[in-house]
DNA sequence: AAGACCAGCAACCGCCACAGC
DNA sequence: CGCTGTGGCGGTTGCTGGTCT
């Protein structure tokens, strides 16, 4: 007798999530926060198993998730980290802010794997030079893991320290960014700013989803979709409109973070003009995301320091004959 | 124009680790 | 110390939309 499947109950819905379900889930998490997934279906009335709820949240609704094409930098990072870590997608995802392990896994399976195969079939062994990887090179994974973990830990610590010298100021920034985010015209105070800022991102995700959902509707105008989005924001942000303008409000805190990151990684990854990233890296979102991954890179960052040391170290190991 | 094929992606499944009892 | 419940992870499936023939 095997163990009973967790989602084997009758009446448990499977298949694609509907926008309504998404809203229910996000609303619940807005109120209670993520975690205790077992309670989610019971409390929300969703006919989904806890696992499905968690997956939906982490892979799709969670704030700060970036969708769409992978950049060359991300390509390189994934290929490189995959060579080092193997198919440990969660670990790899930790190095790619805004990407989920599922996304990376899919991207690898559907695109990068083939790309690598082609390159290998192309003949020359060093043919992966364009992605900075030598796949034939053996690796000592234990060493790499330790270094990677240490690096994550140090990055987190350094970031925390960078933000902590003036905690009062930091919390002021938090409050400021939140009130700005939901209060662009300064007219209305929200009651749960520290959480809402996160869920605005979630609402953004849902809005994107809805866009797709509605895209087949005949002559669905931009106005209509804007109305829809605003409705979401109104619902989720407690009556205020947290449109993309709202991200302006996070600029000040983003600048602080930007400095922290610059001092950490030596590049300007957090251009405050990058609203998407600013939004996702708002302190609350960062804290929120902290449950799963460090936010250590920008969207279109240059060949970053982390990758640099990965390559340097790979070269070093090669020299040492590992 | 229609069917076959393919690629991309969301979601599911099963296993594992860990915490609480 | 073993059992149980829960969450996390990686592999896999199946649906959908696009392209090819």
Automatic annotation (TrEMBL):
InterPro entries: Homeodomain-like_sf (IPR009057), Myb_dom (IPR017930), Myb_TF_plants (IPR015495), SANT/Myb (IPR001005)
Primary site of residence: nucleus
Species whose genome carries this gene: Mucuna pruriens
Record-given protein name: Myb-related protein 306
Domain Myb-like, chain residue ranges per copy: 9-61, 62-112
Subcellular location per the Swiss-Prot or TrEMBL entry: Nucleus
GO MF term (any one): DNA binding
Any one GO BP annotation for this protein: response to auxin
Coiled coil (residue ranges): none
Domain HTH myb-type: 9-65, 66-116
Xref: Pfam families: Myb_DNA-binding (PF00249)
Keyword ATP-binding annotated: no
PANTHER family: MYB FAMILY TRANSCRIPTION FACTOR, TRANSCRIPTION FACTOR MYB-HB-LIKE FAMILY-RELATED
DNA-binding as UniProt keyword: yes
PROSITE patterns on file: HTH_MYB, MYB_LIKE
UniProt keyword list: DNA-binding, Nucleus, Repeat
One GO cellular component term: nucleus
